[in-house]
Design goal:
It catalyses: (R)-methylmalonyl-CoA = (S)-methylmalonyl-CoA. By secondary structure, the chain is of the alpha+beta class. The protein has a single domain, classed as 2,3-Dihydroxybiphenyl 1,2-Dioxygenase, domain 1, CATH 3.10.180.10. The protein contains four helices and nine strands; from the N terminus they run αβαββββαβαβββ. Strands 1, 2, 3, 4, 5, 6, 7, 8 and 9 form a nine-stranded mixed sheet that branches. The chain is globular.
Length: 165
């Protein structure tokens, strides 16, 4: 009536689960693959304060500030080991981060970035599936790789960035 009998009772359940059909069987195969989470982007009203929080208070490795005029942002990356945080601050009056911060005065999560192995194939297939892409062509992102953004209304309220791995 100890551990052995409990293991014997749960063993058939384990066999049943392992012999069942794969959970992903109904997902159609794609010409492209979704990869790992690259980063979570956070819009911040005060970039120096945010850098200091992650570097001086939390002890993270924090990059230098990089200006990305094509995207209208300053970026700073915080290394977390398994992924990164991207701190975003407005660059110029037409910055999408400026309008985000007007609505969210203290800042907040702006988007998530997921790597893909073929960004062009992803774009083609997502368009066929009626997912809106916010640009006609990929732009070069903060890592020097092509990126696109998917409309948040098509992604359950989350702005999703896809980056070529």
């Amino acid at each position: 009536s100890g551990l052995l009998s409990r293991l014997q009772i749960s063993a058939p359940t384990i066999r049943t689960l392992s012999s069942s059909k794969p959970l992903l069987q109904n997902i159609p195969s794609c010409l492209w693959k979704l990869g790992r989470l690259n980063h979570v982007a956070i819009a911040v009203p005060d970039l120096e304060k945010a850098q200091s929080l992650y570097k001086d208070v939390l002890g993270a490795q924090v990059s230098e500030t990089v200006a990305l005029p094509e995207h209208g942002v300053y970026t700073v990356f915080v290394e977390l080991g398994n992924t990164k945080l991207e701190l975003l601050h407005p660059l110029g009056e037409k910055s999408p981060i400026a309008s985000f911060l007007q609505k969210n005065k203290t800042g907040g999560m702006h988007h998530i970035c997921i790597e893909v192995d073929d960004i062009k194939a992803a774009m083609t297939e997502l368009k066929k599936k009626k997912i809106r892409i916010l640009s006609e062509e990929p732009k070069i992102g903060a890592h020097g790789k092509p990126v696109i953004f998917l409309h948040p209304k098509d992604c359950h309220g989350v702005l999703v960035e896809l980056e070529q791995a």
